[in-house]
Specification:
single chain; alpha/beta; five-stranded parallel beta sheet; 6 helices
Length: about 150
């Protein structure tokens, strides 16, 4: 069973919360999504009961425990960018989902980073297909011993 860290914008904007929830549900078919709360539309209200440091410590524990990281990067987010950078420093395998749109461009720090896999999509079904293929490749590489976590 895989431990999956799913990252998506929280304070950067919750317009995609419903999409995050659908992606989290899909990712649960592959393993445990440590950060399933990212898809909860009431998340901002729920996190008011936690201090900033508590949120940071919790998320760091989850990131360390993750076998792989999947980030939906269509909505720019300092937190998601930070999580991607930390995950890369930890040697995690990272897949970024990006939905191109009008007046939207993916950061060169993501698009140009050879350590990241980036998949573009327009519909959720396309995103799910990209995820399934990448997770299958991750599992195959892991079984062959060429992936560390």
């Amino acid at each position: 069973m895989l431990n999956i860290y799913f990252a998506g914008a929280i304070r950067g904007g919750r317009d995609d919360a419903q999409l995050y929830a659908q992606l989290v549900t899909y990712l649960k078919t592959f393993g445990t999504v440590l950060t399933e709360h990212v898809g909860d539309e009431g998340l901002l209200q729920e996190e008011k009961s936690l201090g900033e440091e508590q949120i940071f410590q919790r998320d760091m524990q989850w990131l360390k425990a993750a076998d792989l990281v999947i980030a939906e990067v269509s909505t720019p987010s300092l937190g998601v960018g930070y999580e991607i950078g930390l995950a890369q420093a930890m040697g995690k395998q990272i897949f970024c989902l990006y939905r191109p749109g009008e007046n939207r461009r993916l950061s060169a720090m993501i698009a140009g980073n050879p350590a990241l896999q980036v998949g573009s999509y327009t519909r959720r079904a396309e995103a799910e297909k990209l995820l399934a293929g990448w997770i299958e490749q991750f599992r195959s590489n892991r079984e062959a011993g060429s992936v560390r976590s």
